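User: My advisor, Dr. K., asked me to get a structural model of this assembly before our group meeting. I'm new to this, so sorry if the format is off. These are the inputs:
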Amino acid sequence: MKQLIYLLFATMILTACREEAGRKEASARPDYVLVIHGGAGTIKQELMTAEKEQAYRQVLQAALNAGEQILRAGGAAMDAVEAAIRVMEDAPLFNAGKGAVFTNAGTVELDASFMDGNSLNAGAVAGVRTVKNPISAARLVMDSSVHVMLAGSGADEFAREHGLETVENSYFYTEERLKQLEKRKGTEEVSLDHDAEEPVKKKYGTVGAVALDQAGNLAAGTSTGGMTNKRWGRVGDAPIIGAGTYANNQSCAVSCTGHGEYYIRNVVAYDVSARMLYKGESLQQATQYIIHQKLKEQGGSGGLIAVDKGGNFVMPFNTPGMFRGYVTADGRTAIAIYKDSQ
Ligand code: ASP
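Assistant: The format is fine. Below is the predicted structure of the whole assembly, which you can bring to the meeting.
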């Protein structure tokens, strides 16, 4: 009898301990997480003016605010990602939307992609010239077409037909981007913002966002103007699902920035998820290896942002800097630019 009572007691204590552990585990995941980037590159503090840095920080903060507002209210990760990216697309500072880089022909051609980690649905546009916010066009392809990727004038037409705001190609032009093209015109040289040999004068970069919402859904998006002086309809990694963008509720959401050709060849965004799922690596292990070892050994410069299903997030890069920021439901938030800052 005594033994039975002991056993009963022991079982009760064990159950209580398990429940407590379960609660701890559940509460370890923040209700929501939003991480953004504004491009990786040769971004060094000594080459940046205080005003310029302030301007970048302001836009990054506005992008975080726009996305967080949605997540705090219980909104979808997808909506937060789109809202945050639209803010950066509308700012002339980044190589996405207004302020995007020029092609060799003196036009602006924009790439973007979007992925829902819950349904594994995805959408992308490549080489659009008139869509004001390419990230919304990418989402539209996902939501309102049977396709994943539309390119060129067809993609512009699709967006217009579905009522997205369109603009003249000249809307995207900025003086600074024109100067960058003029320097390279007549040469075979193409330039990524992060290859800048004159970083003071250069602006950076591709923009992206990843989010985990209160329902546990993950989403990712990326938007860019690509490379200065690009020709022949060059398309980078940003609009390629699995290369520049990937999201899967079972693993993580990823948005990349860097030398697109390397990111395509290494299927970087998908590789992060695959290493987690197939190899059992943590988000930290998977991304450290890819950015600091695999890409670095090949000469592929850049970075990425990622959040996993448990709300862990990382922002690794192998360039001198990467515009980045995050905010979580449990009050962690920061904006950083250079290597040594968080
Ligand atoms: N990944 C982009 C591209 O290759 C550029 C960048 O991230 O700066 O088009």
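One thing worth pointing out at the meeting: Residues 19-26, 194-203 have pLDDT under 50 and may be disordered.

User: Perfect, thanks a lot.
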